[in-house]
Queue: 3 jobs
Job 1
Amino acid sequence: MQLKEAAGRKTVENLDFRLGAFGASVPMLFFVIWAVTTSLLDITSELGLVLGAVIGLALGLFLSKSKWADYAQGIFDGMAQPVGVIAIVAWFWAGMFAQVLQTGGLVEGLVWLGKISGLSGSMFAALTFLLAALFSTAVGTGYGTTVAFCTLMYPAGVAMGADPVILFAAILSGASFGDNLAPVSDTTIVSAVTQGADVPGVVRSRVKYSLAAAFPALVLFSLLGGGSGQGVDQQTAMAAMQESSNPAGLILLIPFALVIFLALRGQHLITSLTWGIITAVPLILVTHLGSFSDFIRFNPNSENVVEGALVEGISGYMNMAILILLIVAASHLMRLGGTMNAITDVLNRWIRGVVRRAELAIWGIVSILNSLITINTAAEIAAAPFVKEIGEKEGIHPYRRANFLDAISSALGYIFPWGAALLLGWTTIGDMTEKYDWLPTVAPTEVFPYVFHGWFLVLVMLIAALTGWGLRYTGKNGEELKERPKKSS
């Protein structure tokens, strides 16, 4: 075990474990098993996942041959890594921005657009996919999009004759699209930061993959989304939706577009989101879409005392923030204990310098971890070190590595029945039946085959790995090269 001085404190360079590299992986393995088991038993929750991560880290303590104090320091070193901290801070800002837009009625404005278009059935499902993709791209939260659109677009679409299963899948697909492409998305941020890439460049480089998956998904939603109103009283349903739709909320497309514009122009995410918030709040106040107390208010009788959209935007990510820090720590222990080296050594013996094999290995690792871990950001962070090490060895550009990491994570995170996003939408729809007793619910096992954008995005990245489509290498100064640079003798 080695120690290194860093900023006045000692950091652990490596740790020794009983069972070697496998022992170092026990904290992460326990968490994965815990996550899968609780998901299949339908008892998953963010706090439950936090508990699983804590127990996993505690188990690792008893497998450590190094001093327990050094093992504990290794945990803290992992939590202090920039990737986790940067992602958490960005989530807080993105969460506040999303809550401000929702408070101002942007989603209700989007519902109004769908209503006046006169679309019904399958075309409404296709429109829902487009609007969910647009909304999630702006606010950067696929989970928030899932909740908002299951609350508003799902009842409206069912009332208009859309198939409930396909409609739910369209919402999840749209959320997946934005989670992958949005500059302010947590998965976009994590994929860029972990691979040493800038967010605007990563976003520009992945547009072709996102659109390649979105176009066939849109066609299928427009073809298959209708034909099942399931005996709904459409007059009653439309009367209810009339109350929640409001074109005035469309004015919030201004801060919506401003954030995307600033982020793509290279402004820091905190800067972009701050401008989005300080533009949206006055617009909401001036147009009487909300009051100042909707954003922040003090309530001594409340458990939280401080309430409002800004507080909700931060508090919504608290449990996730804790979870991510613990997952980053578990991943760091795998590196300190040699697990990463052991796995990459096996893969490198198979890859043997063949870039196509390297990208297939990256595709496989990210897919497996996202199949097991219920929250895509957590799975992405777990896979990131493998992706970086394999990709850097073969000279694959950081944009390319980040695209594989994010596309697969954003896709599979909305597909599997035990995934957090799908369960979140299912729970939201179930809650809506208390308000709309005519509203049918959809089981998670029914919807996952129809999350077309997610499946297509996974397929697109597999084709990219097999064919080399979009492959770029890293030049001497970090630039993108189409051809692999020759190694100097």
Job 2
Amino acid sequence: MRANLTIDSRRLWDMLMDTAKVGGTPKGGIRRLSLTDEDRRIRDWFRAECEALGCSVHIDTAGNMVAIRPGKDNSRKPIAMGSHLDTQPTGGKFDGILGVLGGLEVLKTLHQAGYETTSPLALVNWTNEEGARFSPSMVGSAVYAGVYSQAQMDAVQDKDGITQGQALEGIGYRGTVKPGDLTFQAYFELHIEQGPILEEEAKTIGIVTGIQAIKWFTCTITGRESHAGTTPMAYRRDSLAAFAEAATEIRRIAIDHDGLATIGIVNAFPGSPNIIPGEMRFTLDLRHHKDEVLKTMVSKARIAIAEAATRHDAAYEVAPLQDSPAQPFDATCIAMVKAAAEKLGLPAREITSGAGHDAMYTARVCPTTMIFVPCAGGLSHNEAESATQADCGHGAQVLLEAVLAYDDRG
């Protein structure tokens, strides 16, 4: 009966710990980059687990995996859950993985109880959410939503010159279904918060109302390389000095606008200790929950780079890499999550996601929301990433309740 449908938090926890061995690191994290052999191994495991529950597994040309559990009325679109199984180079056991395995635990609970939903259910493992090996991130869901083309995805290269298309075919996960052909009634994504708010406020559930706007850039400042011992300071065209000034100003811009700025990759060329860097290449990640404020931040950051380059007689380039506007989530889906938390007596609060997620793109094509649970210290993208069995279980139970409530709408 519906009233007795309770997920098994121990089973979920065991899946989280067991799958962490695929690409496991000595420090207790996971290195499971997209479209590597480790990714293939976890995909094979996921497919077998879903098929053992009577699901059919569909793979599209972007490598997205969609497991379908039939319902009473299979003329209806599926209600979907999901996230991703790839990780950062030094990733943790929960980022993305909880969303997939939490959804798998929902399917196992329904299967064990013999409970048949009216609509079919879907569980998705999206390709290359992290963007660690192939940039930009969230590519599988972006192709699904029509934001990127398959050709754009396939052409992106990793640091070794291997294209994303080659890697996808290399692990045997180039499907035949066109991304987006399999549409959903709604999409629910369970995830750790990746921030400190829930833990600090002693809340178990984050009711996610949307995702903040994100803009990525690749930037270059080009001065002139010259000898470190013979070039007077006044004669230098030091690209690193220009970069340092720009980076300091960009940080101030983010603080002044209550936004976020991150320079995550920095490379100085030619990379010799006694040569003044002639070129600096770096990435820039700017975020804000309001599109108009982010636009202002971008404008000011461009000016900061231009002025710093000019002061050092250097050229510069700022090239867009990723542009994701602020994405509000669906009011009905949000209400389902809120009602589930209230029903279970779990302390909850509404929250905006600071990180990008696949839900950002599914929200463009179907009603979507997310469920957050706390992670220790708000730490994520780190091998020490940690969450509790109880919180993971509560999140999966809220996911189950919200999905069934959506199914009950008829």
Job 3
Amino acid sequence: MDWNSIVQAILGVGAQVLIPILIIILGLIFGMKPSKAVLSGLYLGTGFIGMTMAINQLTAAVGPAAKALAKYTGINLPSVDFGWTGAAAITWAWPLAFTFFVVEIVINVVMLLMKWTNTMNADMWNVWGLALTGYLVYQMSGSLIWAYIAGGIQAVISLKMGDMWAPEIKDMLGYEGVTVPHIEAFVAVLMSPVNKVMDYIPIFNRKWDAASLKRKIGVLSEPVTMGAIIGLVLALAGRYSIGNALNLAITTGAIMAIFPVMAKFFMDALTPFGTQMSNFMKKHVKGRDFVIGLDWPILGQSTELWVTMVVLIPVAILFAAILPGNTILPLAGVINYCIGVGGLLLTGGNLLRMLVLGVIYQPLFLYGGTYFAHSFTKLAKETGAITVPKGSSVSWSSIEAPDLRFLMGLSGRGNIMAIVGLIALLALFVWLYLQFKKNPIPAKKYEKSLKEETK
């Protein structure tokens, strides 16, 4: 059996198995009692499975509504949206994909030893995102060396984002010692200038999270109510019958109410683990506060996250219909995790900012899916991992970090404009990183504004 087959066999069990096992091992290393370490791992696995089931159910519920809405708007686009699952399937089938584990692990170890990061990335399943960057950059540049360099750049960015988000995640969700070093949040970099402009507009500087809305509008701010309203509006826009519209409303409302319940398992898993890790580090490693990098579903108890992603579904469909040159209809990727996660972490859960930023930046992902359709289709045909419909192409309507991947790919060709653009984008990331080091919890400034208003 070759190394690729071994890696594929290990990955085949899924993130819901791999990450809990790793957490159990780390828990034992940090001195947790075996029973508590196993319980943390099992609760984490339960959280991931429960959250995945809820996400799949939400996608299954709103997908047909989105398709119906597209049908009645007369959209007919050639690129089939296969979502992140399709992208992951064809990426793992690429023979060089498993080599990016080496890129991820070596960079993480070196940065930890050099004290350039405090994030230990345990989200190994999502190394496929690194491999996908490598493949896309290789297709654009023709240079395998540059593909690995681009993967390394992405790994560094992800770890530094993990450092950025950790204090905010602790404040927002109460999770000690964990973070999200996921490249899907990179859209926060492009969002940051607009978010900065919003600082000068009073309406955006109030608290617009679910808790503050509950004080203002009561039952309408409850996740179950907001989900039902969103589902009903989406169904009626898709010309559902009253019965089917009510069914979708109840379904989306129920799923929105289930998300915080599923997220409680993350709390039960990560609170004792994070506390034990923190105590271990304070005792054995002076001056270092290590955090464990996990996948984005640990943010799932945020109502603002789900409201943003579901509200933006019809917005994505509308943009697909009117944007010149767009070739992809959002279906499998219609729930845009990038906008949700990036917006949440950038704004500290300010729902109004998240929605406005989501509308502004939605076209980025449609054009990204359009641009990379050729590469996705080529990889799908080469690997045979999925079937490409005859006369069509496949792509991903909410592709992660399309701007970064695009600029890195063209830079590998020696394109001067792309090189300048990449330098500017990385400089903007550094600026955002420094902003978060200075003010690590953006939601705090809205609390200050609220206090000032009530004086």
